[in-house]
Amino acid sequence: MARPLPPILRAPWSADAVDPSPPAAEAIDRAVEILKRGGLVAIPTETVYGLAADALDAEAVAGIFRAKGRPSTNPIIVHVADVAMAMSLAGQWPAAAEAIATRFWPGPVTVVVPRGPRIPDIVTAGGATVALRCPAHPLARRLIADSGLPLAAPSANRSEAVSPTTAHHVLESLGNRIDLILDGGPCAKGIESTVIDCTTSPPRILRPGPLSRAELERAVGGPVAWPEATEAEGPLRSPGQQARHYAPKTPLEMRADASDRVAALVGEGRRVGWLTSRTDDPDVRRLAASRDLLIVPMPADPESFATRLYATLHALDQRQLDCIVVDEPPDTETWRAVRDRLHRAATR
User: Fold this and answer.
1) In a domain, 236, yes or no
2) In this structure, are 28 and 151 located in the same domain?
3) Do the bridges between strand 129-133 and strand 109-114 make them parallel or antiparallel, or are there none, so unpaired?
4) Among 38, 47, 55, 213, who pairs with 150 as Cys (CB 3.0-4.6 Å)?
5) Do 65 and 212 belong together in one domain?
6) Is residue 120 part of a domain?
7) Do 130 and 189 belong to one domain?
8) Structural domain boundaries enclosing 318
9) CATH code, 183
């Protein structure tokens, strides 16, 4: 008999409330029970939905890899309730990690620090470091606190696919591979956390995200580097570093010549979705009448664009298109996280 689909438990939590609503409290209690017996629970964070398991239980974490079809070489971020829990999992707590956690936790930044002995090999892909984050979403933080468990929680989707920003996205991607989905509403940031390696001098950003390099430099009081063009061999220190990642089922192209490319595809009779912020551009308006073209207006600022990106790609995957074309964003630091996601999504 096929395993049933997981229940989706609505867990509303008002932004100004200190404690969860009764439905949210009941949902958290149910999730705690599942996590403590080694199960898998999809949880909302301010970035994307994560697929959570007890980070100290190697077999439970193995269930994440099986559900996602995730390669064993890809480490998993461990979510903690506070700095004290993070320090209990670290072999050392560098000054840069302390400065960043003090300034930005809870929030969308992950610190990579030396791994402590409590962390199983499977979490770190056998590496000597562990990635730690304290999420800002109240539901995730209360779940960690009530369970007393640090939670290994990569994005709650099949490996390489578009990350989920709603509970429905999780159900579409993982189906009956997991035990429970906590529905805390749409994710506010919409892309994964910034990851910074605090074991190097200067600290290095391994994955761009909602927090910028300038913000991190102000926190640490010194320079923060981007990753080297060629990373050293050995276990990855951060997720999100595979060449292909965050990819919709529909082939995606990021193009500086988007207008010309869209015109050519439509001319070939292809069904195209076009993400553009240039809705007043004459080329866009001229092509808008094409029967086989769906134009999706996107925000012109990087933060709003990031918030809407994954939800838009999920929606376009339902339209049976032949191709998705995205205007290439500006090559600036403020757009670096969006460009990173689009570049990996376009890799084949």
Assistant:
1) no
2) yes
3) antiparallel
4) 55
5) yes
6) yes
7) yes
8) 252-346
9) 3.90.870.10
Are residues 66 and 3 in contact, defined by beta-carbon separation less than 8 angstroms? Answer: no
Within the chain, residue ranges assigned H as helices are 22-36, 58-68, 83-89, 95-104, 121-124, 138-147, 167-174, 213-220, 258-267, 282-287, 302-316, 336-346
Rounded Cα distance between 39 and 137, Å, is: 21
Please give the Cα distance from 81 to 140 (Å, whole number). Answer: 9
Q: Identify the residue whose tokens are 């949902």.
A: 27
Asked if residue 244 belongs to a domain, the reply is no
What whole-number distance in Å separates Cα of residue 195 and Cα of residue 224?
12
106 cis-preceded (ω within 30 degrees of 0): yes
- The structural domain count of the chain equals 2
- Digit-by-digit pLDDT tens for the chain (348 residues) are 678 999 999 998 887 888 999 999 999 999 999 999 999 999 999 999 999 999 999 999 999 999 999 999 999 999 999 999 999 999 999 999 999 999 999 999 999 999 999 999 999 999 999 999 999 999 999 999 999 999 999 999 999 999 999 999 999 999 999 999 999 999 999 999 999 999 999 999 999 999 999 999 999 999 999 987 555 566 777 877 777 788 999 999 999 999 999 999 999 999 999 999 998 899 899 999 899 999 999 999 999 999 999 999 999 999 999 999 999 999 999 999 999 999 999 987
Q: Residue 53 in contact with residue 151, Cβ under 8 Å?
A: yes
Distance from the Cα of residue 108 to its chain's centroid: 10
CATH value at residue 317 = 3.40.50.300
What residue type is 80 in one-letter code?
V
